[in-house]
Amino acid sequence: MASYYAVIHKEGASDYGVSFPDFPGCISAGSTLEEAEVMAKEALDFHVDGMKEDGEEIPVPNLDFKGIYEEYSKDEDFHSLMLINIPEKVKRVRVNISVPEQDLKFIDTVADKYGMDRSAFLVLAAKKIGTGACEL
């Protein structure tokens, strides 16, 4: 897992802005610090995926807190630094399964209710059953 510093900016009543010293052009924002962190993780993950697809080299994280702080804290809109972790990607495998149509509709309805896609829902259900968190 790699970790990169995110610079949090806040100007007056605006949202919290986020930028990454190691990834110029990768920016995000959120109305709260919590939302800014979630959005920053998504933005960085998306940015890194794009770089990988384009065959670009992913920078080694600059973890010099003091240096980054000294550079960005001079800006009047500087708020704070946040460390964002990028987990290693897991290889995904496409599978073809047969499911009765009414069951597939039910799976999709329940998955959608919890903001998940079909694949994520089926994996979660299998893990819960496999760990004994719920029974058949």
**Sheet/helix structural class:** alpha+beta
Distance between the termini: 35 Å
The strand line-up of the biggest sheet is 3-2-1-4
Our estimate of the beta-strand percent is 15-25%
Overall pLDDT? 90
Task: Summarize the biggest pleated sheet.
Answer: 4 strands, antiparallel
| C-alpha-based Rg, rounded | 20 Å
Q: Secondary-structure element order, as H and E?
A: EEEHHEHH
Q: What is the tally of helical segments?
A: 4
How would the global form be characterised? elongated
The residue fraction in helices comes out at: 40-55%
Low-pLDDT windows of residues? none
| Overall number of strands | 4
In short:
With 136 residues, this protein is of the alpha+beta class.
How does this structure look, described?
By secondary structure, this protein is α+β, with helices and mostly antiparallel strands. The chain has four helices and four strands, in the order βββααβαα. A four-stranded antiparallel β-sheet has the order 3-2-1-4, sandwiched between helices. A hairpin with a 5-residue loop joins β1 and β2. The longest helix is centred in the first third of the chain and has 21 residues, at 33-53. It is elongated and about 60 Å long.
